[in-house]
């Protein structure tokens, strides 16, 4: 028989875990982690340059400097698996005032995720930047680890429900705590990686960068997982202590 307090704590923890997992999943699949605001394009020369950058972005070989410069100049957004630019829907580009803008995206393939980063982006002779390379790899691996831990916790909880046992609750809480820490580490790695990128690739004049809503979803997801973990650990320890007291009372 489970005390109402423990049952309430378990229900709230499950709701928090579901919300956090949905937020994290949405963030992983979207590109609005970081976004750039570029000035209005003026002059035929600038239009030709941007068109060339866009064509290289869409059809050219994968290169960090190329896609970074395009993101800077074309109101780009970048996530864990996507990079996008905002361009006019028609072929005349910026010649028509008030032209409809559309988001053109390209995904990062798995081999591209493991591509080394260089001390000077685009210059393969400058030597590999180990810090940026491993920050990039961690930022896309850690959220997958976090989701894996939550799935494992969910399976364990399902089995515990079938067995009508609260014994695994402590372990489930620990798994949620680890998931929250992995999610928080993802944010730290991403922000550190973007800061280092902006140090080696200076932003053009009047181009501003800001955090996107996908990153805020991850920031919300991490404390939700930790709150769920705290409730699960509290329920497990309190129930265990109460069980031992009842057992000692019956023996006495």
From TrEMBL:
Pfam family, one: Claudin_2
Example of a GO cellular component annotation carried by this entry: membrane
Subcellular location: Membrane
Keyword Transmembrane: yes
Stretches that traverse the bilayer: 7-28, 140-163, 170-193, 213-236
Signal sequence extent: none
Domain of life: Eukaryota
Membrane topology value: Multi-pass membrane protein
Keyword Ribosomal protein in record: no
Record key words, sorted: Membrane, Transmembrane, Transmembrane helix
Main location: membrane
PANTHER family: CLAUDIN DOMAIN-CONTAINING PROTEIN 1
Protein name: Claudin domain containing 1a
Biological source species: Astatotilapia calliptera
